[in-house]
Automatic annotation (TrEMBL):
<dbReference type="InterPro" id="IPR000740">
    <property type="entry name" value="GrpE"/>
</dbReference>
<dbReference type="Pfam" id="PF01025">
    <property type="entry name" value="GrpE"/>
</dbReference>
<keyword id="KW-0143">Chaperone</keyword>
<protein>
    <submittedName>
        <fullName>Nucleotide exchange factor GrpE</fullName>
    </submittedName>
</protein>
<feature type="region of interest" description="Disordered">
    <location>
        <begin position="1"/>
        <end position="21"/>
    </location>
</feature>
<feature type="compositionally biased region" description="Acidic residues">
    <location>
        <begin position="1"/>
        <end position="15"/>
    </location>
</feature>
<dbReference type="InterPro" id="IPR009012">
    <property type="entry name" value="GrpE_head"/>
</dbReference>
Length: 196
């Protein structure tokens, strides 16, 4: 009986070794397949990264080109304005009058206004006596109103405002002086008397 047990154990040993070898071969194949899958995944990820980098570079080039296209008319208008200013400064006669200088400066302001209009922006000039609006005006000084009905009206325009033509949104408020009414002190009331 002892011989039979040894024989069975001896027979099982080669079977278990061949089973282990088969399992090891199977595991090696599975690891090899996983390694190939991971390598393929990494290759696809690298390819995606290259595509993303190329697309990002293309977007940056397009943005730069778009900005150049948008700014080109403004740059051209500024160059023309500068050229006109320099030409006029060289050709001014020595006895130029105040009215001539004012007309010249207004023509340059008109050139700048045309450049702004090409960009979709127009100047907005409020009228003196119009009601003050915090959306459209910026009060930089309060001046005394002569009458109560002048309270909250524009007394003087310091600088025009600017409005986007497309959205009609105020981009820069007009800077103005605003009238404020204050009740005058009652001079007819004697000292020491109080209202009941």
């Amino acid at each position: 009986m002892g011989d039979t047990a040894e024989a069975e154990t001896a027979e099982e040993a080669p079977d278990s070794e061949s089973g282990r070898a088969a399992e090891l071969t199977e595991l090696t194949g599975a690891v090899r397949a996983l390694t190939e899958q991971v390598q393929a995944h990494h290759a696809r990820a690298e390819a995606r990264e290259r595509v993303i980098d190329q697309l990002h570079a293309e977007v940056q080039r397009l943005r730069a080109g778009e900005q150049e296209i948008v700014l080109r008319p403004v740059v051209t208008d500024l160059q023309n304005l500068r050229t006109d200013l320099l030409r006029q400064s060289r050709t001014l006669p020595p006895d130029v009058g105040r009215d001539q200088i004012a007309g010249l400066l207004e023509s340059f302001a008109l050139t700048a206004e045309l450049a702004l209009e090409r960009c979709g922006i127009v100047p907005v000039r409020p009228e003196i006596g119009a009601a003050f609006s915090a959306r459209e005006h910026k009060a930089i000084k309060a001046v005394e109103a002569v009458h109560a009905d002048e309270d909250g009206t524009i007394a003087e325009i310091v600088a025009d405002g600017y409005q986007d033509i497309r959205t009609e949104r105020i981009l820069a408020a007009a800077r103005v002086h605003v009238r404020r009414w204050t009740e005058p002190a009652d001079e007819h009331q004697p000292e020491g008397s109080t209202d009941a």
